[in-house]
Amino acid sequence: MKTKFLILCCCCLCNCYVFSQIVVSTNGNVGVKTGSFTPLSPLSIKTQGNSDQIVSIEADSSRHYGLYSMNNSYFNTGSQSSYGLWGRALCSTAFTMGVWGASYLSSPSSSGRAFGVQGRAGNATSGYNIGVAGIVSGTNNGAGILGGTGDITYSIDSRYAGYFAGNVKITGTITSPSLNTISDYRLKHNIENISAKSVKSILKLTPVHYNLNQVYIEEQSDTASTPHGFFADETDFEKLHYGLIAQDVKQIFPELVSEDGNGYLSVNYIELIPILISAVQNLSEEVKMLKEEKEYDKSKKIIKSGNTQKSANAVLYQNTPNPFNQTTKILYELPVDTKEAVLYIYNMQGLQIEEYQIFTFGSGAITISGGHLDAGMYLYSLVADGQLIDTKQMILTK
């Protein structure tokens, strides 16, 4: 059994009559709607509702509000709080949401604006104006705010204030005490040493300093289309910046340059660091070799016998060049009375792979060819009359 109420309102100011119909079903469901209908929700407004919904409201065609709630308690003081809209769903083993908002079209459109949830706050106590606040409570993993470019089906591995599955773009400044980049070897393959060519290419980059330009981007076609700035309004355009020009970097390291949807380029400065480290290591090795060669010239003791130069000390020097990709030369000094000497080559596992018998004592050199060896790091040791003189490292690149 349904009970119908007919309400007649007369407004003298506008000379119009409004007819509204309230339906109360035998199960207690209440509906507000013109025409004959059966309310399926406990409260249905302009819609038949659904038995799974407590309140079902259809948007007004003139105002476009599915639900409009306003709290006019402006003057609450002390510990009191006021809520324009408050939603709570008791957490259980099922899928629960305190507040759920959706604004979605089944196919792309070139007009309109869609916000699933929008929050705005301002002019309260300074520091306490929060447009949207998200907090993860309890002890289980989760995120205060979750953002994704697809369906939210992510299992979050720890506890985060914010978790974003997809690219994130920020037009302002990021302030953080640290910045971590995922670098676990278990997440990588095809791991190789940085090539000497890449190390030399870093010298072709031109560091510059500059000021930023504000540029304005036209949005997609829309009835209310307006351009917006690429950078945040509060960006300091007078501040001097230091960096590289992305177009220049792209010619040398194209894999370190990305292009956004507006065609502007960005540089992955983080991945330039390993190349810089490799360049510094090579420079340090070259400086070391120059020092050793200088010490060699200063400290060697030459005993001249005819046209033969002979040394009174046993010394093993760093190979040059190092790293090398074809051949390298190893200098040594051996006493003139040495009876037997051998130069051994080992891989990093300690396995001997080559040996060179030495028959010329005094000042000498051995040339090593890397053509038949794999790229990597090797050890070489000089043994004279059964005694280890020294061991050094050399690097072969391909």
* Beta strand %: 25-35%
Number of strands: 22
Q: State the helix count.
A: 3
CATH superfamily of the domain at 301-396: Macroglobulin (MG2) domain
Strand arrangement in the largest pleated sheet: 1-2-3-4-5
Please give the CATH architecture of the domain at 301-396: Sandwich
Rg is: 38 Å
Reading off the top of the CATH hierarchy, the class of the domain at 301-396 is best stated as Mainly Beta
> What does the main sheet amount to?
5 strands, mixed
Low-confidence stretches: 6-19, 299-311
Mean pLDDT: 81
Order of helices and strands: EEEEEEEHEEEEHEEHEEEEEEEEE
CATH third-level topology of the domain at 301-396: Immunoglobulin-like
The separation of the N and C termini measures: 89 Å
Structural class: mainly beta
Overview of this protein structure:
The structure is a single chain. With 398 residues, the chain is mainly β. Among the domains are: 1-58, no CATH class; 192-213 and 228-299, Winged helix-like DNA-binding domain superfamily/Winged helix DNA-binding domain (Arc Repressor Mutant, subunit A), CATH 1.10.10; 301-396, Immunoglobulin-like. It contains three helices and 22 strands. It has a five-stranded mixed beta sheet, with no helix packed on it. β21 and β22 (387-396) form a beta hairpin. The longest helix has 27 residues, at 273-299. The termini are far apart. The model is unreliable at 6-19 and 299-311 (pLDDT under 50).
